[in-house]
Structures are given as C-alpha cells and as structure tokens.
User: Fold these one by one.
Assistant:
Number 1:
Amino acid sequence: MDNNEITRLYEEQLSEWDDFRLRVEQLQKVEWKTFDFGTFKIKAQFNPARAVSSNAKLDKASIAKRKCFLCSENRPDIQKGIKMNDRFTLLINPFPILLEHFTLPLNQHKEQEIKPYIRDFLDFAQMMTSHTLLYNGPQCGASAPDHIHFQAVKRGQIPFEEDYKTVARKRILGDDESHADELLEFGRKCILVESASKEKMETMFHLLYNQYQIGEEEPKWNLFVLFEEGIWHLFLFLRKTHRPTQFFAEGDDYMMISPGAIDIAGVFVLPRKEDFDRINKEIIKDVLQQVSL
Ligand SMILES: [Zn+2]
C-alpha cells in the first residue's frame, strides 16, 4: 500500500461511481468563508449535502435500528477498498466534506474506541503522507459510533495543519525530542504529542488517555495525526460536549452546528444557507468554547 495505490483507488471510484462523482463536483463548488483569529484560522463551508449527517440521531437505539454502512455486507457493490493491514480497509467516503476524503473501517463490526487501535492510527499516518488522519470519539461526532473507523483527507484543507506550527505552547510532559505540549491561544483545548518514536508516541498517548478518562469511558476527544519528516504529530482536541446550545435552540436562535473532528480542527460545516450567512467570529468563538474542555 502506497500513496499511488490510494490515488488510483480514488480516481477509479470517481470514474465508476456516478453519485460519488456528482457529490465531489458539488463539493468543488461549495462556498467558503475564512475567519482569522490572529493565532489561528477557522473556515466555514456551506454544504447542504451534510444536513443528514449533522442531524443524525446518534443514540444507541437509533444506531441499532439502522444498517451499518461500514460493514462490508451493507456497502454498495460499487464501493471498492484497499487493505491497509490485516484489520483495516481504506474506502472513499461517498459523502465527502473535503477533497480526497476516505474512511478506514475495521473489517469487523466493533464499537468506536481508540485505545486498542492507536498503533494502527499511527501506522496509517506513516503510510498516508499526503493525507491527514483523524478519529472522532464515539460521543464527539462519529456518525458510526458502533463501528470503529478512522478518516483521512487530503492535506492542506484544514487550517490547524499550518496553525499549530506558530502558536505558543506549554510543555505537559517529555523533553525536546518526545513530548506533549498544550497549544495556547488556539481557541479550543488541544494537546500536541510529538516524537520520532512510535513506542514513545504510544506511551505518551496512554498517559494522556488515563489523565482525561472519565470513569470507564474514553476521554471525549477528536484526534488528528500527521507524519512529517520522520516525526508523528498527534493532536488531541479535548471536548466537553458534542453539540452547542445553538443546536438545541428554538426559533431564530437555532443553528445547525454539530461539530465533529473536522469542525473542531478548523472547518465548520454548515448545511443551511441562513447559518452560513450568519456565522461570524463571535459565534465561532462561543461554539468552540462550549464544546471544548
Ligand atoms: Zn458495522
């Protein structure tokens, strides 16, 4: 598996799968706005195709009622995959938010949790150097909290990929070579774990997992990982809640904002025109504060 195979899968699916190609063409035409907060940027995307996902009922009963779209027996015949390792498969995401948007499900129907799969996550970042890998916690935006999966999107589309390089940091653990730092003046709580050693990455990850764990459940978070010049950069966006008060408001105060990993990392996905027209720095700041730890 290399970057060429990934490109080939994507190109083949684009040419064979008409509905998918149509959605990618729509995505290339969506409207964007960029908000500059000085130390970081947030982009907003007007994307009506995402209304279904933003409104999805994610409680256990609703999830149990629907057919799992990540299980191989329920996937459309036209959807092809690449074996990532013995456990995971790479698929194109038929409902993309960003260009070259992939889903990486486990080959078995097992619930969304990161702890047993952190090594896979780091491995995939190393294999997919043209892409950014991400993980949505089961209570923090995952649309299939019952089936463990990662996602990948083409690099260069989410502001945090550049923003993190210039923001101030506070060391939490480690030394200059292997460490975890909190990113400061970043608008939301984010811890960045960096090392050239996969073993050290895993050790630090488990330490932070234990530190932020609430009872038996996994910490509420969205994770991103980049592999650049031999170093892993693992971002832990720590969450307080999934959806902000605007999502539950009535009347004029209502906004369809349901932040998952991609939103918290810097791309607010807004399926309604009125929300896209209304979004501003104050609302973004408020939403980030509400949903971040
Ligand atoms: Zn499944």
Number 2:
Amino acid sequence: MFTTKQCRHGRGLFATKDISKEEIILTFTGPIITQADVNKKSDKKAANALQIDEELYIDLKEPGVLVNHSCNPNAGIREDTFLIAIKDISKDEEITWDYSTSVDTGWTMPCHCEEKNCRKEVEDFESIPESVQKEYMSQKIVLSYIIKKISQ
Ligand SMILES: [Zn+2]
C-alpha cells in the first residue's frame, strides 16, 4: 500500500496504490515511554515519540515514524493507534498527518509543508484554528487524551 523514499523532508511515506478515504494505512507501534524518557532525547529524536497521554508516548518504529507532518494532511490517527486516510489518496502521493493532533506539551517544530494554510510552526492542538480543530474532531483523528482534556 505504501513505500518509503527520500523526499524534501528526509524520508517519507508514499502511496503505492490508490487509497480510499477511511482505509487503514498502518498501525503505529513501538515501546511505551514516559515524559522523562522523551526529555532525555535530542530534539530530533524526541519528535519520533507519539504522545498518547499526559505523560506517556509511543517511541515510534518504522514505518510509522517516517510519516511526515502536513498542515493540510491526507491521513490522521484514529483510536490513538491507526493511521487512516481522511481523503482519497492517489498512487505516488505522499502520506501525511497533522502532528498537532497529538501534541499537548509545548513541543514545537518549524513547518515547511508549503500548504496554503501552513501554520509555519507545529504546536499544541490548541494552536490549530478552531474550525480545523472541529474538522479534525469530526473526523475522529485527535488523540483521545486531548479530547478528554478539552471536554473537561
Ligand atoms: Zn505546514
């Protein structure tokens, strides 16, 4: 369904066939680590940890770790585990998700996705424009600990 190859952001994930909206692309896997473990990592390595709760992360393994961020993504994380297509994805297209749908710690990363709506900086979920937050929530691609937190 996908392959990894070099692209403008290092390695990335690319569709090897047309993928339909709502199709599961992959499952994110890796050891569970804590905030303290993440703090010990370099900035670049810390970016490989997927936050799944206030103090917990999945230290992502390939291929999940290779999926790049976009401010206008074609995929997202469903049930904290699966990468699913949120639109139809064409063969050879890069597969991306919006990292802010999982972030709640003050972690930031400059963005060069070059999409029209690029936010220039990847930050907490709350940094996303409200209309986009709502869109992501209706697509069920926001990490559950964030949903829990904002609905309190
Ligand atoms: Zn961007």
